[in-house]
Design a protein that fits this description.
By secondary structure, the protein is mainly β. The protein is about 5% helix and about 50% strand.
């Protein structure tokens, strides 16, 4: 079955870096766009970044210039490199698969465009 498994979260000081991984199984990763989202306690889920099957990338305004999304189809993995981390980046981070025919919505990094989600990984940034 379709599975997305995130890893790489943890505790980091403000200004530090982390790299999250999203490993896909049960489908051909090459054919799908993948997005990263985050949700902090008491807040709505926020779109962070999106990478199309062809490798085009899109970012939320709050992370532009600090986060980089990439993919390695041979490893069935999508990455989120996070740099210059701030306490407000603290959240559970999720990866999700863009649904077929939803590329426009996925490029807006809107949750409605995504059909399968991972279980999330916690990122905590201390001040």
């Amino acid at each position: 079955q379709v599975q997305l498994v995130e890893s790489g979260g943890g505790l980091v000081q403000s200004g530090g870096s982390l790299r999250l991984s999203c490993v896909a199984s049960g489908f051909t990763l090459d054919a799908y766009g993948i997005g990263w989202f985050r949700q902090a306690p008491g807040k709505e889920r926020e779109g962070v970044a999106y990478i199309t099957s062809a490798g085009s990338t899109y970012y939320g305004d709050s992370v532009k210039g600090r986060f980089t999304i990439s993919r390695d189809n041979s490893k069935k993995t999508v990455y989120l490199q996070m740099s210059s981390l701030k306490p407000e980046d603290t959240a559970v981070y999720y990866c999700a698969r863009c649904s077929v025919g939803s590329n426009s919505r996925c490029a807006l990094i809107a949750a409605a465009g995504y059909g399968f989600w991972g279980q999330g990984t916690q990122v905590t940034v201390s001040s």
